[in-house]
Amino acid sequence: MIQLNFTLFIQIANFLVFLFILNALLFKPVLAKIREREALLKRDREEALKLEHEVLDQENRHQDELAKARQKATEDKNALMAEAKKQEADVLEKARAEAAKIVDQMKTAIQAESDEVRKTLREQMTPLAQSITEKILGRAV
Length: 141
Hints:
Helices cover 94% and strands 0% of the residues. The protein is mostly helical. The relative contact order is 0.03. The model has no long low-confidence stretch (mean pLDDT 91).
């Protein structure tokens, strides 16, 4: 049988005092540290997510800038190629024009020489023909 006496009330009082002291010295500080650590972990996770999003945004911007740079480089290359082809066509046209001019000059020079030679031959042909005719006929013509 259980006897209820004065010691039971002392034990209950001791228990409540001990519970109050433990709560003040141990439970509250430990719970506060646990909450503080949880808050710190939550903040660190949020910061990590924020940094991860920033990295992804920067990577996307970098990829966009890289794509724009590649596109601009391709456009510049195409423009340079078109300019080079235009310059090549201009150089070839100038070379053809110069060659045609040289050919025309040569034709003119050859024609002039040919005319000069024909004139000279005509001048020399008459006395030569007369001389040959006199020798063949044996008399003066």
